[in-house]
Amino acid sequence: MAERGRVQRARRLVVKIGSALLTDDGRGLDVTALAGWVDQLTALIRDDIEVVLVSSGSVAEGMSRLGWRERPQHLHELQAAAAVGQMGLVQTWEAQFKRHGLHSAQILLTHDDLSDRKRYLNARSTLRTLLDLGVIPIVNENDTVVTDEIRFGDNDTLGALVANLVEADGLVILTDQDGLFDRDPRKHADATLVDERLASDAGLDAMAAGGAGMLGRGGMQTKVRAARLAARSGAFTVIVGGRLEQVITRLRAGESLGTLLLPEQGRIAARKQWLASHLKTRGQLVLDDGAVRVLCQGGRSLLPVGVRSVTGQFRRGEMVSCADEFGREVARGLVNYDADEARAIAGRSSDRIAEVLGYVSDEEMIHRDNLVIV
Ligand SMILES: Nc1ncnc2c1ncn2[C@@H]1O[C@H](COP(=O)(O)OP(=O)(O)O)[C@@H](O)[C@H]1O
Ligand SMILES: N[C@@H](CCC(=O)OP(=O)(O)O)C(=O)O
């Protein structure tokens, strides 16, 4: 109960909606329900809360459009269904947000996009730019091209990774049950709803052991796992019934709906710990005194102008060490430019990056969120 204020205070949320909810249990896109969620999300956005939507439903909607009653066995059929269904999904989301004068954008990701450092930073910059522009990113797995080796597998995991990517305060998972119960409520009529736990609580696994619904992929197991992943960047997770009247608005008002799974540490501490665990550095940036001072005071990004020299070979997104003029390490961080580019823009002001490189991917050499002082 005590922690519900976190949901009220959140400034950036990832909201994931499952297949059964979106497609009215496989009968086809539930436009009325979708419109209801869009109305509530729009109210959040008007309140200056940034929202990224993770929408499942492409396979379920594709099956419904193609008149398939049973989930196909072959991967290429599933992928074909996803391709058909994704059209309907994005069209419907777009039309609904347009009613409120809001733009939306389709983002299809594969696991590779988030495991490759460079693509990770690109995905992150694009999502951030969309949020800055007031556009609602609508994310799904790129089902048409994924194979088993490169799939997230379920959108709960994808939702958590997106929450890590955009450093969301929280992940809200809308599903067809009112939340996480102590046992599968489809099989046990006396199951009781779990209100609040630490995401790391080992007792949650046994509760979530029942499988998924007909249309979903992961059931509660993937939702609990997603909550643990989200907790790694300090985000809370709410698992809640998407059919509850005004569910998003009521959560936002602090009402105790669904199950709240909490991280053990705050967002910034979690991120810094994650960064600090990257032991291997690929190169070194030697900073001038001004830059060293600014970084050590904390909370500031490293700009190219403060870099005197660059050693080593590294790529955008890799970890580099930052040292003062005497070679003493002062910080580490994920660098926004390849080594050759970093050399070319070192010592220059950010507004000259375009002139030197022909493009600007970021104004900072290392963004403050990706920097840890040592
Ligand atoms: N302990 C539990 N509490 C709630 N639901 C559970 C539990 N164990 C298993 N389930 C099942 O998980 C299903 C939701 O997961 P899933 O079908 O993957 O939905 P979604 O499409 O929303 O991701 C529920 O319909 C429920 O039957
Ligand atoms: N990318 C798939 C998502 C599958 C999935 O995870 O479904 P769900 O468990 O309902 O969130 C689709 O759009 O059908």
Automatic annotation (TrEMBL):
The family database entries (CDD domains) matched by this protein are listed as: AAK_G5K_ProB (cd04242), PUA_G5K (cd21157)
Xref: InterPro entries:
AceGlu_kinase-like_sf, Asp/Glu/Uridylate_kinase, G5K_ProB, Glu/AcGlu_kinase, Glu_5kinase, Glu_5kinase/COase_Synthase, Glutamate_5-kinase_CS, PUA
Q: Where in the cell is it found?
A: Cytoplasm
Q: Name one GO molecular function term.
A: ATP binding
Read off the Pfam families from this record. Answer: AA_kinase, PUA
Which EC number(s) are documented for this chain?
2.7.2.11
Q: Which residues form the PUA domain?
A: 283-366
Which of this chain's residues are annotated to bind ATP? 16, 175-176
Question: Mainly localized where?
Answer: cytoplasm
Positions binding substrate in this chain are 56, 143, 155
Q: Which SMART domains does this chain map to?
A: PUA
Part of which pathway?
Amino-acid biosynthesis; L-proline biosynthesis; L-glutamate 5-semialdehyde from L-glutamate: step 1/2
Which Gene Ontology biological process is one annotated for this entry? L-proline biosynthetic process
Q: What is stated as this protein's family in its record?
A: Belongs to the glutamate 5-kinase family.
Q: What is this protein called?
A: Glutamate 5-kinase
What is the organism field in this record? Marinobacter nanhaiticus D15-8W
